[in-house]
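Collaborator request log, item 7. Partner lab (contact: R.S.) asked for a structural prediction of Four helix bundle protein to inform their binding assays.
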Amino acid sequence: MRDFSGESGIRPCGSVRAVSFGGYARKVRDPGLPYRHRISALRSCVQLYRPLGFHATLSYLESKAGRFRSDEAALLRALDIIEASCAVLQAEVDAYAVRRREAKRQGRRTPRAQDANPNAFPRRR
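Returned to partner:
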């Protein structure tokens, strides 16, 4: 049996550290990290928030911000773009939550079909 006391640097399953979007964003901005790690952190941000899909979002960021794989200013612009988009979605989700709480308080337990739900995927008609 292995000793998982932490001296070996090995952690048992289930103790993997999860990093949030904000945590990865801080890594992208950290000039003390190797550049490839910062690029990897941006890709992790995209993995957590990918409004167009992973590869399409990366392509969009590159088209808007520039070649972030080799340009630090473009890397930071790409992060700003995805953070702004994520903030817009979060504001929509927060506003929806407020509307739903109020509707529930008034006895409307089921959302109406015409109410836009930012948590749901768009339905094809």
